[in-house]
Write a structure and sequence with these properties.
The structure holds two protein chains of two kinds.
Chain A (H helix, E strand, L loop, with lengths): L8 E4 L5 E6 L10 E6 L6 E4 L13 E6 L2 E6 L8 E9 L4 E4 L3 E5 L1
Parallel strand pairs in A: 1-9
Antiparallel strand pairs in A: 2-6, 3-4, 3-7, 5-6, 7-8, 7-9
Chain B lengths: L2 E5 L3 E2 L5 E8 L9 E7 L6 E6 L5 E3 L7 E6 L4 E6 L8 E13 L2 E9 L3 E5 L2
Parallel strand pairs in B: 2-11
Antiparallel strand pairs in B: 1-3, 3-8, 4-5, 4-9, 5-6, 7-8, 9-10, 9-11
The chains are: A mainly beta, B mainly beta.
Chain lengths: 110, 126
């Protein structure tokens, strides 16, 4: 059971906009920042969003992150087939004094 | 360009100690800006943080693994290591090492992993 809660799956058609939610609590998302990772099956995770809404320079601006209260969201606009992957939210939990991950969301591009 | 590479046995017997090394190239473990750490992923499951450390000695461990985990560093070789004792089949996973940025700002603690090593699969089996 993951500390951060994500839907197990999401889907969309090419060109669509999809969002993936991440729910936490006052000790993690409510107190600290959220990061997002993309993992193509068989490969290592890749940093997609850091500090709630910042993108590394190599990440397309189709990807955006937001945070409100104890929840966060990842939005992908102009969905492409190459976006098919697993997406994980993550952060720090003050009560556990450690890093925590969501259970992951498998995104399918139909 | 910073790169990390995990290495170690792919098969460990139950009750024994899992030992892995992460070799860092293209940058120094002794960099003042970064932590370093380990994350694992059981087959078909999600990511689990194991622990993080700063080369001058500050270390964080997952509460669920703390009693069995030791992370150490060899700055002369630009490597850091993971030891997980008394392993069981539940410890079978792909183990990743990563560089970690930890900062404190107006929005609390910022803690992200980038880049990651390619990962190494460790099977716990007799």
């Amino acid at each position: 059971q993951s500390v951060l809660t994500q839907p197990p799956s999401a889907s969309g058609t090419p060109g669509q906009r999809v969002t993936i939610s991440c729910s936490g609590s006052s000790s993690n998302i409510g107190s600290n920042t959220v990061n997002w990772y993309q993992q193509v099956p068989g490969t290592a995770p890749k940093l997609l969003i850091y500090t709630n809404d910042q993108r590394p320079s190599e990440v397309p601006d189709r990807f955006s992150g937001s945070k409100s209260g104890t929840s966060a969201s990842l939005a992908i606009s102009g969905l492409q087939s190459e976006d098919e992957a697993d997406y994980y939210c993550a952060g720090w939990d003050d009560s556990l004094n450690g890093a925590v991950f969501g259970g992951g969301t498998q995104l399918t591009v139909l | 360009q910073l790169q990390l590479q995990e290495s170690g046995p792919g098969l460990v017997k139950p009750s024994e100690t899992l030992s892995l090394t992460c070799t860092v190239s293209g940058g120094s473990i002794s960099s003042s800006n970064y932590y370093w750490g380990w994350i694992r992923q059981p087959p078909g499951k999600g990511l689990e943080w194991i622990g993080s450390f700063y080369y001058r000695g500050n270390t964080y461990y997952s509460p669920s693994l703390k009693s069995r985990v030791t992370i150490s560093v060899d700055t002369s070789k630009n490597q850091f290591s993971l030891k997980l004792s008394s392993v069981t089949a539940a410890d079978t996973a792909v183990y990743y090492c990563a560089r970690i940025m930890i900062t404190f700002g107006v929005d609390g603690m910022d803690n992200w992993f980038d880049p990651w090593g390619p990962g190494t699969l460790v099977n716990v089996s007799s």
